[in-house]
Amino acid sequence: MAMAMACTIERKTTPPNRNRWAGELLPELFELILKKLASNVLDIIRFKAVCSSWNCAAARSYTSAPLPQYPWLMPSIPKSPPIDHESRCFFSLAENKVYKMDWNWKKTFHGDGASCLGSSHGWLAIKEVNTEKKTYKEYEEIVHLFNPISRERLLAPKMTRTKKVVLSSDPSHNNNFVVVVIHSRFFEGTGLAFYQHGRGGDNAAAWTNLSHGSSCADMVFHNGHLFTLSIIHTIQVWDFRGTYDNNNYPMKIMNFRPSIDGNVNSMAVDEWLVESMGELLLVGQERLGNDTRGAVKFFVYKLNIAAKTFEQVESLRDCALFLARNQSAMSFSLSTKELPGLKENSIYFTDLDHVLKLNESCGDNFHEGRVYNLETKAVETYYPTRAPVSNPYWNSPPVWIVPSPWY
């Protein structure tokens, strides 16, 4: 595997007269150029930076047909960070390069108290914890929705013990999006709550509870509906195709526990609910060894709503799945036909390698990016780590994001 190169993404302005010719190109030429650059967000950013005409052309292109993008991986914070550690880095899978962003993580999110919950529609969900209150039960959290490309930031109402955040749509192009969170409730399992952007204030009253004590493990929006998965594989579905507030709840239209076609190892390390090409998949990871970084095996099942069953999937065909290290972050599927640099019938994931040091009671943690072929069961490394990371359970695990340059 080739070593990833490190680069810096900075914003630069060009004198207006220098690019006068650029604004005189025909719209058809703009479209042709954009189609050539479509799958690399960095090329789109460079295109938009040429002049205002090119920026407008890119915006029109998104409106007519949103273009697929290769994903980025935001690695964990190093255990012994370099001097410039206040900037976060992203690994471009398409270019095999690490890019350092020119915005300051610690100044933007008040430093060490912030962690990334995951991404949704190209936006990161960043959680800040206010520990001024005396008890854990009273801890207050601020969740920022942050676009790392445009640096636009939106604040969600205050919440406590947030575990996962999903958005119904891209905030860059729909101000009426819905935010749903899984949050833990003291001695009550987990709860689900939502708010519609723009209708609520900055306090907990802006949230509307959907359920509590449900032991919700994962959730995903699919065709305007919210699907949730419990730890015992119960599926619940809410219809979000409307406008809602504290007095107008989305309707729960399904609540069932599908039977499973085949044997599922109940000791699976993690399970995910993933939307893939119009279908919902249950994906599980089993570890075939006692060490942290042992051999791995994945199983995939498709949800058949009509029959209320999970049916085993033998092949993902021309799809690649991207799974988060833990269930707090979003997982997703991409087409290898639209993005030919991806490996088909494969699962991209990040693995935790715990290495014990000699004469020490504890060791170092290394996150490694790996890809699993569902047919051959072979595993390859696409992002080797070179430095230990900070505590992976208290700080941000690696997070996948499909960047959104359309702002």
From TrEMBL:
InterPro entries named among the record's database cross-references: F-box_BR-signaling (IPR050942), KIB1-4_b-propeller (IPR005174)
Coiled-coil regions, chain positions: none
Stretches assigned to the KIB1-4 beta-propeller domain: 90-365
Pfam families, per the entry: Beta-prop_KIB1-4 (PF03478)
Top-level taxon of the source organism: Eukaryota
The protein's name: Putative F-box protein
